[in-house]
């Protein structure tokens, strides 16, 4: 063990929000400055794989490396080892590797859980799908890769994966008969993503399942108009089929609620 380093046991890493490290019992590990957190972010995204030194220098210093990039990186790796333990960051030919399995990093656990949740939903098990997707989405603690200097492109990919998981979770909610409780989140997401047809279809289905067919038809018309105005396109076949269902509900459609009975008039005096 190098002087000043310590052994702290298995560590878990979080990058779906601020970059953090904590021990198996949940104790936070002090990481230090912004560049140290950026270095850990890059390594954690590729946990278990060697990251070339040139890639690390470029991403940590955002394309503006110091004159001695290799030396500065080596010093930064030394600081990270003092925080995490020398065994946590392994020197490898041409670069460095975070000695951790994918499940030690929240981003990779998110992908595994979300993928399994979608598979369970497709297999007709919405209850288990909801559990897995809730666990996956619960890993997010803020904007992805918040401590990466140039995060825009990579973070956008993770944000898209998160939206996919939220869409699947809402689909599970509808399959479980929870349309009314899903509507507020669907309304907010549809406002933020007005051209996302699968998401809009979920909201229209939720309105229908909640007994609000008139609002569902209005929502379809709004989507149709937005697609025509912004993209010069018609709704997808799936969305048009949903519209046809709204116009011609099948025999299994829920009947409209009966009107409240009118109380009998009081007898004349």
Structure description:
The protein is mainly alpha-helical. Among the domains are: 11-100, Winged helix-like DNA-binding domain superfamily/Winged helix DNA-binding domain (Arc Repressor Mutant, subunit A), CATH 1.10.10.10; 179-250, Serine Threonine Protein Phosphatase 5, Tetratricopeptide repeat, CATH 1.25.40.10. It has helices at residues 34-45, 53-60, 69-84, 106-122, 126-137, 152-175, 179-192, 197-209, 213-231, 237-247; strands at residues 11-14, 20-23, 50-52, 89-92, 95-98. Strands 3-5-4 form a three-stranded antiparallel beta sheet. A two-stranded antiparallel sheet has the order 1-2. The longest helix is centred in the middle third of the chain and has 24 residues, at 152-175.
Which consecutive residue ranges, at least 5 long each, have pLDDT under 50? 1-5, 254-266
Which architecture name of the domain at 11-100 does CATH use? Orthogonal Bundle
CATH topology of the domain at 11-100: Arc Repressor Mutant, subunit A
As a whole number of angstroms, the C-alpha radius of gyration is 26 Å
Average predicted local confidence, pLDDT: 90
Task: Give the strand line-up of the largest sheet.
Answer: 3-5-4
| CATH level 1 name of the domain at 11-100 | Mainly Alpha
CATH superfamily descriptor of the domain at 11-100: Winged helix-like DNA-binding domain superfamily/Winged helix DNA-binding domain
Sheet with the most strands? 3 strands, antiparallel
Please state roughly what percent of the residues sit in beta strands, choosing from under 5%, 5-15%, 15-25%, 25-35%, 35-45% or over 45%. Answer: 5-15%
How many helical elements? 10
H-E order: EEHEHHEEHHHHHHH
- Termini separation: 101 Å
**DSSP strand tally:** 5
Sum up the overall morphology in one term: elongated
Residue share in helix: 40-55%
- Strand-pairing-aware structural class: mainly alpha
């Amino acid at each position: 063990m190098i002087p000043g380093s310590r052994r702290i046991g298995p560590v878990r890493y979080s990058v779906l929000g601020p970059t953090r490290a904590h021990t198996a019992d949940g104790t936070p590990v002090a990481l230090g400055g912004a560049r140290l957190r950026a270095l850990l972010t890059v390594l954690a995204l590729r946990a278990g794989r060697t990251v070339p030194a040139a890639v690390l220098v470029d991403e940590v210093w955002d394309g503006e490396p110091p004159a001695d990039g290799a030396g500065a990186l080596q010093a930064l790796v030394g600081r990270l080892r003092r925080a995490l333990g020398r065994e946590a960051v392994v020197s490898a030919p041409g670069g460095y590797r975070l000695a951790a399995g994918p499940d030690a990093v929240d981003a990779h656990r998110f992908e595994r859980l979300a993928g399994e949740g979608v598979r369970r939903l497709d297999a007709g098990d919405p209850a288990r799908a909801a559990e897995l997707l809730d666990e996956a989405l619960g890993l997010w603690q803020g904007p992805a890769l918040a401590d990466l200097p140039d995060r825009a492109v990579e973070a956008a990919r993770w944000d898209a994966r998160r939206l996919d998981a939220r869409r699947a979770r809402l689909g599970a909610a509808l399959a479980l008969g929870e349309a009314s409780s899903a509507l507020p989140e669907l309304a907010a997401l549809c406002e933020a993503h007005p051209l996302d047809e699968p998401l809009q279809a979920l909201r229209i289905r939720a309105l229908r399942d909640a007994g609000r067919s008139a609002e569902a038809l209005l929502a379809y018309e709004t989507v149709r108009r937005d697609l025509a105005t912004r993209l010069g396109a018609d709704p997808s076949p799936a969305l048009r089929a949903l519209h046809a269902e709204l116009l011609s509900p099948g025999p299994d459609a829920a009947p409209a609620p009966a009107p409240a009975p009118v109380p009998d008039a009081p007898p004349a005096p």
